[in-house]
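Internal ticket - ligand job 383, carboxymethyl coenzyme *A:
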Amino acid sequence: MLEDVQKGLEGVLVAESGLSSIDGDAGRLIYRGYDIETLAREATYEEVLYLLWHDELPTAEELEAFADSIAEERELSADVLETVRRLAASGEEPMAALRTAVSALSADEPEPDADPEDLDATLRKGRRITAKIPTILAAFERYRMDEAPVDPHPDLDLAENFLYMLTGEEPDDIAAETIDQALILHADHGLNASTFTSMVVASTMADVYSSVTAGIGALSGPLHGGANQDVMEMLIEVDESDRDPLDWVKNATDEGRRIPGFGHRVYNVKDPRAKILQARCKELSEANGDEKWYDYTTTIEEYLTEEQGLVEKGIAPNVDFYSGTVYYQLGIPVDMYTPIFAMSRVGGWVGHVLEYQEDNRLIRPRGRYTGPEEAEWVPIDER
Ligand code: CMC
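stdout (structure tokens):
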């Protein structure tokens, strides 16, 4: 029995996994041996999902059949749509709405009684959830805008169809490629908090709806997926302050503010995903003829890394530092950024659930008790 408490499970190995690996000193991320840069440049999100769920890259035929099988599962039942409508009408936060709607999806599951040990059935369920999350999010946004949801388009890929359902118009190539790339970059990332949460739930042999619902809850916090929204809100604050961004960040650090989008439990150098999104952000800024957001982020990054010496402390930009400005330039509402992260990370959650359940062992750690050993019971009316 280990005696030392590893606060936050920092550095503790809890499972083996063949899905993804991070080299935090070299700033390298691989999915099943493929560099994230290669996947972001060459693959599609569906191809990456296949890789994560089936151990290897698909052939062209396999990919087509797989992408079709996802496209066929996009529609929501009238009941789930009504749930989404009511959540939007009540002013629910998008991540909370997504959590509730994914949980509600299980009522429509065509294989509700499948044996939890039947991993093929779990894969099919995971595929249905993955296919429906974009529809939930787009419908939620449409209802919030007092507009009717747009039916999924069977001929568009997952990223294109999401933008289509969000706006009612087929997206241009730049927007579709950008979202597809963002989905690839966020699909898996070792045993991050939300993936570990999904695995803990799966280790009880609960079904995959519970794992994904729990994963969404864990992802929603500001120390995890919620940081991308916080970064954009910070940049909007800089913009509205009418201050020079350099002045703004100096003041923020003097006040001891923690800058969202910086720091990571595993990376000691700049996150490779941040580099790819930074390049995307620059491209979009140049295409839009407005480099304001790109300039704000780079000014803040330079000041923090050079002047504040955060790099020496191993605190560098993470994926969230540049994703916000990318989504903002595509006109996506700020509070949909973390849900887009969830729309992608569901691939990792399902992949890890499948992998873990293949050789399952209940996850059940211990805590060191620090309360009194013996306490004398006092009846309630004598306390
Ligand atoms: N700005 C300024 N200082 C920071 C930051 C930051 N964003 N992050 C960490 N530090 C400092 C922190 O103050 C502490 O300094 P000291 O040792 O002097 O007290 C030191 O770095 C270590 O911080 P920590 O909180 O113990 O580090 P951690 O490994 O537990 O936390 C983190 C990692 C991601 C929670 C943290 O860096 C953070 O809060 N970052 C901002 C939120 C964020 O961007 N989250 C997204 C993470 S990446 C995407 C994802 O996985 O979802």
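Auto-summary: The longest strand covers residues 20-23. The chain has a mean pLDDT of 95.
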